[in-house]
Design brief:
- This protein is mainly alpha-helical.
- Helices cover 69% and strands 3% of the residues.
- Strands 1-2 form a two-stranded antiparallel ribbon.
- Strand 1 and strand 2 form a beta hairpin.
- Helix 1 packs antiparallel against helix 2 and helix 2 runs antiparallel to helix 4.
- It is elongated, with a radius of gyration of 19 Å.
């Protein structure tokens, strides 16, 4: 027989973890959407920014995949547990492809390569915190 208090604590922690993971997913989806809108609209408002505009077709594919991941993690707690893996399987490859298209179009423009930090820098911020059940010695 398990302690009802311990079981209630486990359930509360699991519910909070799921809520936090879903918030991170929302944060990620909103960030990708804002970046996409800026990628689309900023070159229209500031013509000098056209050199830095990523390929819109690639960005559309990225946004659709990010939308599917966001929707799936909202619907399934099993898939929500995989949040964080999407950073390395979806975000990093697409950010590379988006930035590589800008650099390929502007080989003599060093600022195009420098803007990579703008894309890659914040990416680790949208991954969830590690599972605290594992300590320095492994699972408890």
């Amino acid at each position: 027989m398990t302690d009802p208090g311990a079981e209630a604590s486990r359930e509360a922690i699991a519910a909070e973890r799921l809520r936090s993971i879903r918030f991170v997913g929302l944060f990620r989806f909103v960030g990708i959407s804002i970046a996409g809108a800026l990628n689309l609209l900023l070159p229209l408002v500031v013509p000098a920014m056209q050199a830095y505009q990523s390929d819109l077709r690639r960005y559309a594919a990225y946004w659709l995949i990010a939308t599917a991941v966001f929707w799936a993690t909202r619907r399934s707690s099993r898939l929500a547990a995989l949040v964080g893996v999407d950073v390395c399987l979806v975000d990093m490859p697409f950010v590379y492809l988006l930035q590589a298209s800008v650099i390929a179009r502007n080989p003599g423009l060093p600022a195009a390569a420098l803007t990579t930090t703008m894309f890659h820098g914040p990416a680790p911020l949208d991954s969830p915190p590690p599972d605290r059940r594992d300590g320095p010695g492994g699972p408890r």
